[in-house]
Design goal:
The chain is built from three helices and 17 strands. About 20% of the residues are buried. It is α+β, with helices and mostly antiparallel strands and about 260 residues long. Strands 3, 4, 6, 7, 11, 13, 14, 15, 16 and 17 form a ten-stranded mixed sheet that branches. The protein has a seven-stranded mixed sheet with strand order 1-2-5-12-8-9-10, with no helix packed on it.
Length: about 260
């Protein structure tokens, strides 16, 4: 499986550091030009992080049907498909290379932690749809050894034009929020479903209230990561895929099935 990615506002912290460095240099120039005696420097005050919440997305382990808009053509990549994951690194590399996408159902956990010294209140986590198109029909990769079943308490219906995280059919965050003291966090287990014949890309947006009572938002996305942008495709009929990689009769290896064999 693709490894979990830590998604947070790192660039804002870097900007704060550069700004502080510039102020120090400016103060040094003033000291050199001034004859006044300065008092002893006091200890630097505690600096709050630019973004008080950190979000980690953890994919659930287990077999799943995967699709891709790319075809697997090189001998080395086909060997990984045929023989299964010889190593986790080889499998992970192939999935990232072809931008493999889960079909119908994906399961993951969203861990939100307050990394500041002050309380924050998480009032909403919103899936932001960035692409909706026809389901992928290029490459299908069937799992070896069956599909793992996942039971999670929060659902996400991606067939909805404006999906929300729900629990027992009702929006989760309209009924409650999460107040996090310094260092505290919470984990939201998600089961996202897409039953229609569409392809969807989305990322998460965390809405929170900071210590000053201001509502802010953190866009949890990282295009260079396999986790920051979620990709889900609906299923189409087996014979519609250009390439269909399925297990052999013994179930230990995969092979490429022709359209006639899929009838």
């Amino acid at each position: 499986m693709i490894a979990a990615s830590v998604l947070a506002g790192v660039s804002a912290v870097i900007v704060s550091f550069i700004t502080g460095l510039g102020s120090s240099i400016q103060g040094f120039v003033v000291d050199v030009l001034s004859d006044e005696k300065k008092p002893a420097a006091s200890a630097a005050p505690h600096t709050e992080p630019a973004v008080p919440v950190k979000v980690v997305v953890i994919p659930e382990e287990g077999g799943t049907f995967l699709v891709s808009e790319q075809r697997v053509t090189s001998a080395a990549d086909r060997a990984v498909l045929i023989n299964g994951a010889t190593t986790p690194e080889a499998w992970d590399h192939l999935l990232r290379k072809i931008k493999a996408t889960s079909t119908t159902t994906t399961a993951y956990k969203v861990a939100v932690t307050n990394v500041s010294a002050s309380p924050v209140r998480v009032v909403d986590i919103v899936p932001v749809i960035t692409r909706r198109s026809e389901a992928i029909r290029t490459t299908m990769i069937e799992p070896l050894g069956g599909v793992a079943s996942d039971t999670v308490p929060v659902q996400l219906n991606l067939d909805n034009r404006y999906p929300r995280f729900t629990q027992n059919g009702k929006p989760y965050f309209t009924r409650q929020s999460q107040v996090l003291k310094a260092g505290e966090g919470f984990v939201m287990a998600v089961e996202a479903k897409l039953l229609g014949k569409e392809y969807v890309e989305y990322h998460l947006k965390v809405d929170y209230i900071d210590k000053k009572g201001s509502q802010r938002s953190l866009e949890v996305k990282d295009p260079s990561s396999g986790v920051g942008i979620f990709r889900v495709s609906g299923r189409v009929d087996d014979k519609e895929y250009a390439d269909y990689w399925g297990p052999e009769k013994e179930g230990r290896k995969r092979r490429l099935y022709t359209r006639e064999e899929r009838e």
